[in-house]
Amino acid sequence: MPFKRIDTKKIVNEKIQTDQDFAKTYEEVKKEYSLIEQVANARKEAGLTQQELADKVGVSQQVISRFENEKHAPTLDSFLKILEGLDLEITINKKKDYISL
């Protein structure tokens, strides 16, 4: 029996339109995955292996791997070490209220 092709984007978009709780959770998770992807891409662009980054910042390679594979959120301390090792920083800004007229 052949596999049935499923359009997951369509399903997710429909769910977002009909379920506010799902939409809110989806947006939160999307931000987290985007952050993880940006950090992983920065490591690759720097030409570092997971082991090299781990050695540089004093964490295990498993910490880097689990973070990049979205299996585990590192402690804030480990996360900041990873960012420092990649010469990245976090900027915190107050949310802006936009009023459209």
Automatic annotation (TrEMBL):
Keywords: DNA-binding. One of its GO terms (cellular component) is cytosol. This is Helix-turn-helix transcriptional regulator. Residues 39-99 form the HTH cro/C1-type domain. CDD domains: HTH_XRE (cd00093). It comes from the Bacteria. The keyword Chaperone does not apply. One of its GO terms (molecular function) is DNA binding. SUPFAM superfamilies: lambda repressor-like DNA-binding domains.
